[in-house]
Amino acid sequence: MVSFRFPFSVSQPPPATCSSATSRPFSAVTAAVTVAAGAAAFAGVAAVSQTNPANQTHPFLQNALNLLFANRSLPLWGSLSLNDAPASVVDSKTGVAFPSVLAESRRLLGIGLRRKRVLGLKNIDVYAYGIYADDNDVKKLLSEKYGKLSLSELQENKEYNDVLLETDIGMTVRLQIVYGKLSIGSVRSAFEESVGTRLQKFGGSDNQELLQRFTSQFKDEIKIPRGSIIDLSREPGFVLRTTIDGNDVGSIQSKLLCKSILDLYIGEEPFDKQAKEDVKLNLASVLQE
């Protein structure tokens, strides 16, 4: 069944000159329009679901959801059960499709874009990424504490803002390469800088060995053409598992490393601010199911 509860996402399309990582302002009018549009779309979804008992992805359902998820915002994602979710959601900025569910129970909560400024002249789209959290873990570990809070209360709750970083919830950040000239060495160097900064931020300066263990997984012989997929997954017990195009390249047990990786995408200074806000809103919707 489709749930008719909507998180109050108020994302607006950014101006053409703005970066995709810019936060979008709150507007009561926008909220009303978003909910009204969502209700109309999901009324159609419900009708399709009733006539499609085999739960196959229907073209109307897929197109409606892709339209609602334009500009990479996923304002209504938490309102669908895992069984009713479409097979994939397309990122309108890059054309990359992300599965709505990974590993049977990890739900897509947000889509973001990693951009890199080159020589101070222009931004290059390096990869699109999808952020997933295990539905069962979220409800088991977070519902009792946060499930009864309103959206506004959750937004003001500092612990809630950091809960995905700190809690042993199964998560995956899926990176899909969109820049055709990216080398594995560039990926390794980028992680050395970004993850190294986070390790120092959370654990001090004596973490070079841990950083080297992680970055050494990205070996020179690995090719990552456009369309390649890198999965960074936090498994039970704070184990970071890395796969590239479905091949397991290493696992490291470290809460500090898991937190440092996730902080790149949902921390205080994420690569894409709108993606982080979508994750918070859709996580709240899951908790209130």
From TrEMBL:
Residues 107-279 form the Chalcone isomerase domain. GO terms for cellular component: chloroplast stroma. InterPro entries: Chalcone_isomerase, Chalcone_isomerase_3-sand, Chalcone_isomerase_bundle_sf, Chalcone_isomerase_sf, FAP1. Coiled coil: none annotated. GO terms for molecular function: fatty acid binding; intramolecular lyase activity. GO terms for biological process: fatty acid metabolic process. Pfam families: Chalcone_2. Belongs to the chalcone isomerase family. This is Chalcone isomerase domain-containing protein. It comes from Rubus argutus.
